Amino acid sequence: MKRRDFVWFSWLFLASCTAATNNGNSTKVTSETLRFTVTETQNLEELQRDYGTLRIALEEILQTKVEFVPVGSYTAAAAALQLDQVDFVLTGPSEYVVMRARTNAVPVIALTRPNYHTVISVSANSGINSVGELKGKKVAMWEVGSTSGHLGPTKMLMDAGLDPKSDVKILLLKGDGLPALRKGNVDAWGGSAVKYEKFLQDENLSQKDLPLIAKGPLLPDDLFVANSKFDAKFIKDISDKLLANQDKLLNSLLSVEEGKYQGSRLITTADSNYDMIREVYQAIGQGSFVQ
């Protein structure tokens, strides 16, 4: 998922203090239209191009008109939930914990990603063989808030006993991170296994050129979340219908970027499954915004 810098944290905190919400008043659905967005999209054109087939599938499965609501960023998606401008959102783990903290968004169903791992790579001649040996080194990552490209590799540093704020120098280089590692400008790169594999393929390299020193466990799943105004019966009804028709829904997602939903499944989920994300935010000094 695309991310923004931490400016949005402050903005969203202010919004949470001033916007009118109805989180305490659960209501049954009365509209014939379900307003829907995807947090990684920037505009209506992207929604229609990448998720038009998903919208149609949702309409058929839920037997309800589904209307796209472009929001521009996951900051805006959280605010839209808070202001009751959107009903249903497809989002990633990092975005979800922020939405949950600010809007009490309700997890409906999770969408697994079979190759959703973080890896840490080094140069072949680096002499570095473990994550713990990165103390004092420069580590390239993707961008702030990225689940697989920032929070995931940061958790791997933490698990190796390193303080991500003081023991390593993290450089947020987005797509320039792996090229920087190849040129020797950084000591390691932490990010998505999918992006790592694609870079090797595009550059005609092998793992011997940029060996992995660690591969993390599966990251928390993407998920569909609902506006907290809806009652539990409505949420369960949506969840049950999606599970019963998951083949149709999953087929509608096969063309999404990098094939990230290839081999995915729909599974039930719980808010506690995303505590790892909160743990990392806490470790990097941003815990107050996701609790």
Automatic annotation (TrEMBL):
InterPro entries for this protein: PhnD
Pfam family of the protein (one): Phosphonate-bd
Signal peptide span: 1-19
Keyword Signal among record annotations: yes
Keywords of this entry: Signal
Superkingdom, natural source: Bacteria
Stated family: Belongs to the phosphate/phosphite/phosphonate binding protein family.
NCBIfam families reported for this sequence: 3A0109s03R
Protein's name according to its UniProt entry: Phosphate/phosphite/phosphonate ABC transporter substrate-binding protein
